[in-house]
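Box 3.1 A note on notation
Throughout this textbook, protein chains are presented in two layers. The first layer is the amino acid sequence; the second is a token string describing backbone geometry. Keep the layers aligned when reading.
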Amino acid sequence: MDVLGLNNAALARASEVKPPTSYNWAHGKTKSIKGEPLLRAAKALGVKPEWLATGKGPMSDDPAAPKTEKETTNALKAALRDWRMHASPRSVQVIDRLTLLAEKESLREEDWTLIDQLAKRLKQAS
């Protein structure tokens, strides 16, 4: 699984933790990330430590980055519309389902994993 462009092993190395620890972070099985591992993980992922620890506030200092969950959802829906134009008929079904879930704000961790995989494949194809 990729998290913001890093696979589990890379996130573990960058954070100086064991892979099961970073796996638990990525799958929501850890209640909190603290201390130096939090700072190292945030740096590796290019996000603010406060956002990584709590999910609140801006994700990054990048002025172009989404600031709220609604902005993130809107950016995702725009990306899905763009991807849909270049997708195979089978992929269109998946993209349509993800769009529906995004509109209902019902995306689960597995959905975000699928979105990350789609984004990675589309980057490789272009």
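The chain has two domains: 2-54, 69-125. The chain has a mean pLDDT of 80.
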